[in-house]
Specification:
Blueprint (H helix, E strand, L loop, with lengths): L1 H22 L11 E2 L2 E2 H25 L1 H12 L7 H7 L3
Antiparallel strand pairs: 1-2
């Protein structure tokens, strides 16, 4: 469910960002109250910003949920010796 929400939010942020970049004039006074695809520039910015903030929060939650995998993968990637340490052995063993 977290991954699905991240995907949807990423698509919203990407679409609104690209749309504003290519089709809405930059700068505050340029086109602020002109309607683009049924929404004003202020509304496009609001949707883009709120989606990005929510996406950042869910990314943090996603990292917390997968913290064990991150630690184990990083440890295995940078491990120089082939002998497992006892500290990480119990943490990184598959369930």
């Amino acid at each position: 469910m977290v991954d699905f929400c991240l995907t949807i939010l990423f698509l919203i942020v990407a679409f609104t960002g690209l749309y504003m970049y290519f089709f809405i004039p930059s700068g505050v006074p340029h086109g602020m109250y002109v309607v683009y695809m049924g929404l004003t520039k202020a509304t496009w910015l609001w949707i883009h910003n709120k989606s990005a903030i929510l996406m950042t929060i869910i990314v943090a939650f996603h990292l917390i949920l997968h913290w064990r995998w991150i630690v184990c993968t990083t440890r295995n990637f940078f491990r120089r010796e082939k002998v497992k340490t006892e500290v990480f052995e119990s943490v990184c063993e598959p369930e």
